[in-house]
Amino acid sequence: MLAMILAGGRGTRLESLTKKIAKPAVAYGGKYRIIDFPLSNCANSGIDVVGVLTQYESILLNAYVSQSQRWGLDTQGSGIFVLPPREKIEGFNLYKGTADAITQNIDFIDLYEPEYVLVLSGDHIYKMNYDKLLETHEKNQADATIAVIEVPLDEASRFGIMNTDKDYRIVEFEEKPAKPKSNLASMGIYIFTWKTLKKYLLQDEESTETSHDFGKDIIPKYLEDGKRLFAHPFRGYWKDVGTVTSLWESNMDLIDHSDQLNLSDSTWKVYSEDKGSPAQVIGENAVVSSAYIDKGAVIEGTVNHSVISTDAVVQEGAVVTNTVLLPGVRISKNASVDFAIISENVTIGEGVQLKGTADNILLIDRNVNK
């Protein structure tokens, strides 16, 4: 089995955080980037060949994921391969949808002659052993297996919902139904038997009535043709960090729900870039409570219920509450920030007061001096 990570979306709901970089490259959790999670899951699951399909504002993302050694995928016969759209004899086409992105890379996949292809999203926070997903797929002799997670029924209309029989065979797929029949939400994580998927992708490529999307086109076509589709229930932590609020919430979960998302678990490491920063410094007069603080951070002021990323600085008299400071942020003397995400390398000037709410998380993407 090889993996293909879809990492080319614009991520417009993250507003200015994705103005210059792709969503999977957005910083998270002190020292990580979102793409670290699916890549680390692949490495920990023993998947040796990973294609990362990039498109929108991909310079930083391409450079980042090309360093295969970060995830231990730099040995002979393994690797992370950056796969942007390519010019071919028939011309140059951007990826038109999730399925089309895989279709345009059929030649890459065929080089490895896999029996199965794992298709992943590059913008979710979770830890999953894909071997267990593969076990479900093989046990059921499935054509496709889709990871699902239970969501509150009153929120199910926000998701693609899988309706199954008692054996978790999928009998119906509903995209954001007004009246959901179940609460099994698709996680956007699929295992396909490659020979079957390849046939359907080529058919989809020739169709004039398609959006070239797995959820909208490929999965419904499988069901229409009576293919064996099964759901794989997942009962761990999973978060789609596609909005400013959800990104803030997931960072706060590192403090409030560390038992569900433990990034210090040595049995399932999340690998990332090591910037070589020194140890954190907590000043003599600093006040720190309920905080998640990474290497290189310098705290001289007050930090409460906040995530402080690599090389961020909170100067004397500054107060940071309910806030995510991304790498390199500087909060100057006597400034205060509450309910916010501060973008990388931004400086908040002396005495500046910034206050959001739990329902309105501030996103500060430039220096603020008054």
TrEMBL record:
<keyword id="KW-0119">Carbohydrate metabolism</keyword>
<feature type="binding site">
    <location>
        <position position="160"/>
    </location>
    <ligand>
        <name>alpha-D-glucose 1-phosphate</name>
    </ligand>
</feature>
<keyword id="KW-0808">Transferase</keyword>
<dbReference type="InterPro" id="IPR005836">
    <property type="entry name" value="ADP_Glu_pyroP_CS"/>
</dbReference>
<dbReference type="InterPro" id="IPR023049">
    <property type="entry name" value="GlgC_bac"/>
</dbReference>
<feature type="domain" description="Nucleotidyl transferase">
    <location>
        <begin position="3"/>
        <end position="255"/>
    </location>
</feature>
<keyword id="KW-0547">Nucleotide-binding</keyword>
<dbReference type="Pfam" id="PF24894">
    <property type="entry name" value="Hexapep_GlmU"/>
</dbReference>
<comment type="function">
    <text>Involved in the biosynthesis of ADP-glucose, a building block required for the elongation reactions to produce glycogen. Catalyzes the reaction between ATP and alpha-D-glucose 1-phosphate (G1P) to produce pyrophosphate and ADP-Glc.</text>
</comment>
<dbReference type="InterPro" id="IPR029044">
    <property type="entry name" value="Nucleotide-diphossugar_trans"/>
</dbReference>
<keyword id="KW-0548">Nucleotidyltransferase</keyword>
<keyword id="KW-0321">Glycogen metabolism</keyword>
<feature type="binding site">
    <location>
        <begin position="175"/>
        <end position="176"/>
    </location>
    <ligand>
        <name>alpha-D-glucose 1-phosphate</name>
    </ligand>
</feature>
<dbReference type="InterPro" id="IPR011004">
    <property type="entry name" value="Trimer_LpxA-like_sf"/>
</dbReference>
<dbReference type="Pfam" id="PF00483">
    <property type="entry name" value="NTP_transferase"/>
</dbReference>
<keyword id="KW-0320">Glycogen biosynthesis</keyword>
<comment type="subunit">
    <text>Homotetramer.</text>
</comment>
<keyword id="KW-0067">ATP-binding</keyword>
<dbReference type="InterPro" id="IPR056818">
    <property type="entry name" value="GlmU/GlgC-like_hexapep"/>
</dbReference>
<protein>
    <recommendedName>
        <fullName>Glucose-1-phosphate adenylyltransferase</fullName>
        <ecNumber>2.7.7.27</ecNumber>
    </recommendedName>
</protein>
<feature type="binding site">
    <location>
        <position position="186"/>
    </location>
    <ligand>
        <name>alpha-D-glucose 1-phosphate</name>
    </ligand>
</feature>
<comment type="pathway">
    <text>Glycan biosynthesis; glycogen biosynthesis.</text>
</comment>
<feature type="site" description="Could play a key role in the communication between the regulatory and the substrate sites">
    <location>
        <position position="55"/>
    </location>
</feature>
<dbReference type="InterPro" id="IPR005835">
    <property type="entry name" value="NTP_transferase_dom"/>
</dbReference>
<feature type="domain" description="Glucose-1-phosphate adenylyltransferase/Bifunctional protein GlmU-like C-terminal hexapeptide">
    <location>
        <begin position="284"/>
        <end position="353"/>
    </location>
</feature>
<dbReference type="InterPro" id="IPR011831">
    <property type="entry name" value="ADP-Glc_PPase"/>
</dbReference>
<feature type="binding site">
    <location>
        <position position="95"/>
    </location>
    <ligand>
        <name>alpha-D-glucose 1-phosphate</name>
    </ligand>
</feature>
<comment type="similarity">
    <text>Belongs to the bacterial/plant glucose-1-phosphate adenylyltransferase family.</text>
</comment>
<dbReference type="GO" id="GO:0008878">
    <property type="term" value="F:glucose-1-phosphate adenylyltransferase activity"/>
</dbReference>
